[in-house]
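Record now logged underneath.
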Amino acid sequence: MSILKLKRVLVSDKIASDCLQVFENSGIDLTYEPCLSKTELLNKIPDYNGLIVRSATKVNAEVIKAASNLEIIGRAGTGTDNIDAVAASEAGVVVMNTPGGNTNSAAEHTCALLLATCRNLPNRHSELMNGEWNRVNGIELQGKTIGIIGLGRIGMIVAHRMQSFGMTTVGYDPIVPKTVAEENDIGFMELEDMWPVCDFITIHVPLLPSTKHLINRDVLKRCKKGVRIVNCARGGIIDEDALLDSLNSGDVACAALDVFEQEPPQTDSPLLQHSNLIATPHLGASTAEAQTRVAKEIAEQFIALRDGKSAFGCLNAPLLRDALSKPNETKLARNMGVLLSALAPKATVFEVTGENGSFIPYAVMAGYLDNKGDKAVNLINIKKRADSCGVSFKFTEGSGLAVSSEGVSVSGMVDGSTPFLTALNNASVFMPLKGCITLVETSSAMFAGLQVLSPCVSGVHFAGAVTLLSHQDQAINWDRFNVIATLKF
């Protein structure tokens, strides 16, 4: 089952050539134009089905609105805060990242910065270059407690590496269960309990409204005096003004930031100039190995989704992920919805009988609504679109697939990979739901004559005066018929 057209893909940020090679081998037309201006991106994006970015390109609502043919946005990396996921979801556009590609690189950089804060290595280097021989005492990691905020892939690797230094690891994550933390020798703690006991704090959560300024003035006052803080996640999670005050007071002994609220930060920033701040220019994923991995992985994930093999990395597509387990049945359900958009155009409630109730009814509604409006409706945005249009369903578990609404009932089945209409208002039919179906007004006598129209055309008389003709995009002269609708599947 093909999920995406994915004929043309635009790469608008610098990315390793491995990405380009994968697309080329898959027959996809790829355009590589990093460093596009906003105006250039808005002008180009309507011509593409796919967009791949890193962190430089800002894919906001304006870009998504202009992207009339866009099906998928891919982030070659983990964080997607430069992509308006809400606007993408409303437009039915998949948002995808590569959750594992830069994990090790980000974890290693975190560990490097943690070690650097122990002895403020940049300061010692600068002093030595200036002819100063200051053998200042630092501290050891062994025997200290590190608080890890976010126990995903990166947080877990950092925990394991720090345990090898003899540190006590405690952590918090709103999603990861306490049992998982404990299985990895991490003491699970609520944030309020963590602040006073940690000698080190490292952050590994996304920037969300709930994590904006998570480390703020009040939190810093509750931390152990002399705490060392590392952020290799996202700028904005730490309140930089509050951090500067805590560095000045000595409440924070040293901080290491790889990310900033404004990137790049102002070079004359008092925070950046502080002697107890270690700063790097967003290097967490900047290793040759990580860039190769994320470039190759995002391309492979695009193609796997296009071919209906995997939805790995999709961040806003739970229904689509489920539907990939039954691709042919999903196609049948969607095509039956398309058919009902013509046969029952005023339907608001669908009675669906079949299997896989978690996604099949949504596929029916997506086909129905997609064929009735000028905005794309699919399994990404169907829930919101159905709510806004006042369309719903009632599902009953059963065999096969049957859908009814407004006095019209249809049943279907899949033969091989082809969806078929098998019943229409209890009359037996065997009509493929593919290619085109045209609804025309005919008499019974005219319908009989239509049966010999073409060996590749099949038909069924419906509702006394309407005939459904199934044909495969043939050059048929419809001038002598009153065509009600032509449905394309």
Q: What stands out?
A: Residues 451-455 have pLDDT under 50 and may be disordered. The first helix runs from residue 17 to 25. The chain is about 35% helix and 25% strand. The longest strand covers residues 408-415.
